Amino acid sequence: MKNLFILGNWKSNKTTAEAVLWQQSFVKNVPPILDNVTIILCPAYHHVSLFAHKSNTYATGVQNISPFDMGAYTGEVAASMVKDDVTHAMIGHSERRKHFGETDEIVAEKVKRVIEVGIKPVVCVSNTEQIKQLNMLAPEFAKSGLLLYEPLFAIGSGTSDSPENANAAAMEIQQIFPTVPILYGGSVTHENVKGFTDQPYLSGVGVGGASLDPDKFVSLIRAVLS
Ligand code: PGA
Fold first, then answer.
1. What is the pLDDT of residues 25-73, one digit of tens each?
2. Whose CA is nearest to atom 1 of ligand 1?
3. Does the beta carbon of 9 lie inside 6 Å of ligand 1?
4. Ligand 1 closest atom vs CA 186
5. pLDDT tens digit string along 150-171?
6. Residue 211 CB less than 6 A away from ligand 1
7. CA distance 47 to 118
8. How confident is the model at residue 190 (pLDDT cuts 50, 70, 90)?
9. Which are the catalytic amino acids?
10. For ligand 1, is residue 118 a contact (CB within 6 Å)?
11. Mean pLDDT value of segment 75-80
12. 21 CB contacts (<8 Å, ≥6 apart)?
């Protein structure tokens, strides 16, 4: 059985009270997770401590990381600051590239910072151009990293890419990084998730909107396990 990853990305959402309720509901309802499946929860930074090391059921990640180490960089969170709290860090999400000017060079810097402290990078790409730039990443990326392919039209639109197209993109990525697990993201729900996880080149999914409601996220996990 191949390894599968289900990454929940809360983006810029939830008060602390809402995050606590989500965590309680999720822990109560999530089914036993098979050994080949890894759930990665990526809340906002200030909610990470709600999740970090609380369970064998899920891993915890951040949605972004500073390209610098600790120091005089107001507002940034360095990889070395969260290395004891999280196992994964999302890097280069299209919303960061669009709204915060994140370039391929910055993405490559961030990847280096997290690898240095033993956090696994989850690098996001949304098109063929970015896929070509992936070879800028540190050679160590291939050892611990994950890739999340998310075409722009599918993010938050309610219209996912087809599993076949996503599989074709994953095939292209795999030519650059033969051993790196490739996930698809963009309007994944409990109804369509199995179509993606069944594809031969896909090793899981990134889930935004459908991870915000704990019941929907649990249904999605159940669908993958079914
Ligand atoms: P979505 O977001 O599931 O809401 O489309 C996916 C993502 O941006 O990671």
1. 999 999 988 889 999 999 999 999 988 877 778 999 999 999 999 999 9
2. 208
3. yes
4. 5
5. 999 999 999 999 999 999 999 9
6. no
7. 21
8. very high
9. 93, 150
10. no
11. 98
12. 214
- 174 is in which domain, residue-wise? 4-225
Model-wide pTM > 0.85? yes
pLDDT band at 136 (very low <50, low <70, confident <90, very high): confident
Q: State the CATH number of the domain containing residue 188.
A: 3.20.20.70
Helix axis angle, 16-29 relative to 214-225, nearest 10°? 30
- Ligand 1 centre and the CA of 14: distance in Å? 16
Distance in Å, CA 68 to ligand 1 centroid = 27
Ligand 1 touching residue 208 (CB < 6 A): yes
Count of domains forming the chain: 1
Residues forming beta bridges with residue 39, ordered by sequence position? 6, 58
- C-alpha distances in Å from residue 222, one per residue of 10, 29, 214, 225: 19, 10, 12, 5
Q: Output the 3-class SS for 46-109.
A: HHHHHHCCCCCCEEEEECCCCCCCCCCCCCCCCHHHHCCCCCEEEECCHHHHHHCCCCHHHHHH
With a cut of 80, say whether residue 213 has pLDDT above it. Answer: yes
Query: What pLDDT, on the 0 to 100 scale, is given for residue 53?
Result: 75
SS3 165: helix
Q: Is 182:159 a contact under the CB 8 Å cutoff?
A: no
